[in-house]
Amino acid sequence: MPLLGAHMSIAGGYYKAVNAAATAGCDCVQLFTKNNNQWAGKPLTDKDCEAFKGALAEHGITHPISHDSYLINLGSPADELWKKSIDALVIELQRAEQLGIPYVVAHPGAFTTSSEEAGLQRIAAGLDEVHRQTPKIAAQVLLETTAGQGSNLGWRFEHLAEIIAQAADPDRLGVCFDTCHVFAAGYAMQDKKDYLATMRELDKTVGCDRVKAFHVNDSLKPQGSRVDRHAAIGEGEMGLEPFRHLMNDRRFKKVPMYLETPKGDRDGEDLDVINLRTLRSLVA
């Protein structure tokens, strides 16, 4: 059975995200380690970290993962924002390390007023500086596939491959594959042959072994729209088939997968519970 979980809120304490994951029937959990729309965050206390790790052990939740701040842009040509983004990503890795989280998911960045090539170089240089400042930290950055809105990079597998190739320490980088983003970026996944072709391309450019996490989300917008809008599993433009292929892909049976689908209730039942049940029902 695949390792399935969801992104959960840290409101009221980091351990609360783990408790919520357990209540929903998750195997794994994703969280922010601070407010994702602010640069600064309250320092983590030993109590925070102990309660979080204790909750993971108590509930048997594995593969905790964090997502970095949406303000970070390592692709920015503006020096002030670029340096601020480097500092912020260093802090994200430090916080993950304190909490015992092995991976921090990060959107690669947007080139804004420069060019695609300049943006990719800027991201690789930014990651090199982050790595220089965190030599003893085990937590790694996972570059997320994006939908490619605006000047966002990472919507082609080649973008991720180029960033990794340019990085001085590529072994400290992995990839997070977001199903909605890849579909919105234009990759086909509905038919089995299309899914296999997309995964072949991923393997050829980035390497399937570099994929350390999945975000499992359906897409509100059509294939190739380059618009990032998540939908419940099987209720968007993707339908159930891409998820059926993924749930039964033996290459990824030990890679954790996290829902980032809309939250709420339907007929008194938690939507995360419904989405997890749908995904598990697709396993052959």
Automatic annotation (TrEMBL):
Domain Xylose isomerase-like TIM barrel: start-end pairs: 19-270
EC number: 3.1.21.2
InterPro entries: AP_endonuc_2 (IPR001719), AP_endonuc_F2_Zn_BS (IPR018246), Xyl_isomerase-like_sf (IPR036237), Xyl_isomerase-like_TIM-brl (IPR013022)
Positions contributing to Zn(2+) 3 binding: H181, D228, H230
Source organism superkingdom: Bacteria
Keywords, comma-separated and alphabetical: DNA damage, DNA repair, Endonuclease, Hydrolase, Metal-binding, Nuclease, Zinc
Residues the entry annotates as binding Zn(2+) 1: H67, H107, E144
Any GO molecular function: DNA binding
GO biological process: base-excision repair
Cofactor note: Binds 3 Zn(2+) ions.
Function as written in the Swiss-Prot or TrEMBL entry: Endonuclease IV plays a role in DNA repair. It cleaves phosphodiester bonds at apurinic or apyrimidinic (AP) sites, generating a 3'-hydroxyl group and a 5'-terminal sugar phosphate.
Family from the record: Belongs to the AP endonuclease 2 family.
Name this polypeptide is given: Probable endonuclease 4
Gene name, Swiss-Prot/TrEMBL: nfo
